[in-house]
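Task: complex structure prediction.
Instruction: return structure tokens for all chains below.
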Amino acid sequence: MEKLTGHKKIKTAVFISGRGSNLDNLIKFSNTKKSPIIIDLVIADKKALGLKYAAKYKIKKKIINYKNNRIAEKKILLILEKKKIKFICLAGFMKVLSANFIKRFKEKIINIHPSYLPKYKGLNTSLRALNNNEKFSGCTVHYVGTKIDSGKIIIQKKINITKKETETSLDKKIIQEEHKLYPAAIMKIFN
Ligand code: GRF
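Output:
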């Protein structure tokens, strides 16, 4: 991964579909002096709640019509090029990026997932972990590969599941850890 030169931060886009708590957290992180990235663009596949953070911090946002994946990705690639985006953070983005798209940003797209991968890829990770009486779950930041929730792991954190754990309480613990883990992953990549 390229090293930082001088004080120039890497132009980054965050892709979202939902609430956007990781987006909010990443923007706050990127505004710190130590951050190697600067968030210049937010992409959403619909009118996601999290877009309010783009407005709050005056970051350009784009909602992409995803009726046709290929056309949607073509549009996104054009915008990324225009904005000179060099790095992409997926944060609750619910669309699967094509192999072609990933190739264009090889090892430059990362994702956060609410489980201790490779366990529990996909959705409803906390509920499935609880139903299987797991002793721990976690969260993982990984490079985006062509298969869902696969790709080289950058950093991950185990989170204990207590006897009284519910899906809500576990989700809450995980999202709190995610907000520490995502910036830590970015620091790890660029330093
Ligand atoms: C997070 O749990 C993340 O791990 C998963 O989607 C959720 C997004 O949450 N990929 P938020 O929209 O960042 O609040």
